[in-house]
């Protein structure tokens, strides 16, 4: 079957366009958070934004959001800009808007700002309206996130602070931050994902050698040769950015090939039939689905540019090669090949924290890397006043948990459980679930 390859200009949406004041919003409070709140949300990325917006619709307004950033989703967009990324891989229907309410969705927002869009972007909206795959400009997505933050009063509840630990108790939770503690009835953890560290064997652990950096640190190109290690969307952006800056690129793919796929997760897992397929399996089956459905991927739109660069010698690919060591300007492969350049950039993917580091280990109760969560409420089984949205909810929700739209699906359960718990004066604790001591 032939593969449809969209034209590369779909990647070229403008970045940094002005948007209405209502879509930019105020900054977070640079002050100590309040001592008490009904709900504390840890993290103000797309997941945290979705949670606070959904709680607003449930009538829950006494919410405190703690995050080191000055604006919602600040780190998310800082990482995107470090890559020079201008469009998202996820389609218009994947966004942090509120599930189940007649709210402004991402496609609605883009259409409201039709006059600010390019002809290509308008065509993509028409594709989305027709049910076809389309790409979303980062500019539009960022303005939409700010619109959600303003219209659901998120930023006014946000405090610049870093969560250090979360201590669940029988009647509530205490969230300790670097700017004081907050006593709360419920805590929702939305910490996002961290970059995957390099194997210790590559340089012996610790900080990387000089001239070796990670994908989210930003790369300044001076035209010299660049080595990129990684096989997914992030690596594709790094390679493309280096080529556009006039650099020659050596691309090390430890996989057999770069993968031109448009989504990390099969679309059925965002729909009831897919979730039923996941819920209906035993633990071994669910683990298999989680491993199989988390794939490295890059968009087809990259393909013509990268193939052209490979054909004219500006791009050299080293496929299916394991890395044995990394030093300044040099990546040694297991077969004895040395790949050299002025700089080495690592794009090894991301990893999530199941709650370890914030919650006591006995509360996390991780097995196979996944925390013990109640799938009905996405709360920790041993601390039902603490709930999770994001990748940590994978074993409860399925492969979609790590995706932006998966955050929205988890949020619908979390917001309902928290609102009901507040109304009843206690959390939803299933009778057959033991609660850890001190929880």
UniProtKB/TrEMBL annotation:
Sequence segments annotated as region (Disordered): 1-33
InterPro entries referenced in this protein's UniProt entry, alphabetically: FAD/NAD-bd_sf
Q: Could you tell me which Gene3D superfamilies the record lists for this protein?
A: FAD/NAD(P)-binding domain (3.50.50.60)
What's this protein's name? FAD/NAD(P)-binding protein
Q: Which organism is it from?
A: Actinomycetospora aeridis
């Amino acid at each position: 079957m032939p593969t449809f390859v969209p034209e590369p200009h779909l990647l070229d949406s403008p970045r940094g366009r002005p948007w209405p004041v209502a879509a930019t919003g105020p900054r977070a409070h640079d002050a100590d958070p309040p001592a008490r709140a009904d709900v504390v949300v840890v993290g103000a990325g797309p997941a945290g934004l979705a949670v606070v917006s959904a709680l607003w619709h449930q009538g829950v307004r006494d919410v405190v959001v703690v995050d080191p950033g000055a604006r919602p989703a600040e780190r998310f967009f800082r990482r995107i800009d470090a890559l020079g990324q201008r469009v998202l891989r996820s389609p218009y229907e994947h966004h942090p808007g509120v599930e189940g309410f007649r709210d402004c969705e991402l496609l609605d927002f883009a259409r409201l700002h039709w006059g600010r869009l390019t002809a290509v972007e308008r065509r993509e909206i028409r594709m989305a309206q027709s049910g076809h795959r389309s790409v979303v400009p980062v500019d539009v997505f960022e303005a939409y996130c700010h619109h959600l933050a303003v219209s659901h009063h998120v930023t006014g509840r946000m405090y610049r602070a870093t969560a250090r630990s979360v201590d669940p108790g029988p009647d509530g939770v205490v969230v300790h931050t670097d700017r004081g503690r907050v006593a709360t009835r419920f805590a929702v953890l939305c910490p996002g994902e961290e970059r995957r560290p390099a194997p210790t064997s590559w340089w012996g652990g610790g900080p990387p050698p000089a001239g070796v950096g990670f994908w989210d640190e930003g790369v300044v190109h001076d035209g010299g040769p660049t080595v990129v290690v990684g096989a997914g969307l992030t690596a594709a952006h790094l390679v493309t950015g280096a080529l556009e800056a006039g650099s020659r690129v050596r691309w090390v793919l430890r996989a057999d090939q770069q993968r031109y796929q448009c989504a990390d997760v099969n679309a059925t897992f965002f729909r009831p039939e897919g979730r039923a397929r996941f819920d209906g399996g035993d633990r071994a089956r669910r683990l298999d689905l989680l491993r199989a459905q988390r794939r490295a991927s890059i968009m087809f739109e990259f393909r013509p540019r990268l193939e052209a660069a490979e054909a004219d010698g500006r791009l050299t690919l080293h496929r299916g090669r394991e890395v044995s060591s990394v030093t300044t300007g040099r990546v040694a492969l297991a077969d004895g090949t040395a790949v050299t350049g002025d700089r080495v950039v690592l794009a090894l993917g991301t990893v999530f924290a199941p709650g370890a580091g914030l919650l006591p280990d006995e509360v996390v109760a991780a097995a196979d890397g996944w925390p013990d969560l109640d799938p009905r409420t996405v709360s920790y089984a041993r601390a039902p006043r603490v709930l999770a949205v994001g990748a940590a909810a994978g074993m409860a929700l399925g492969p979609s948990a790590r995706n932006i739209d998966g955050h929205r699906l988890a949020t619908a359960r979390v917001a309902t459980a928290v609102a009901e718990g507040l109304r009843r004066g206690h959390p939803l604790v299933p009778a057959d679930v033991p609660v850890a001591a001190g929880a």
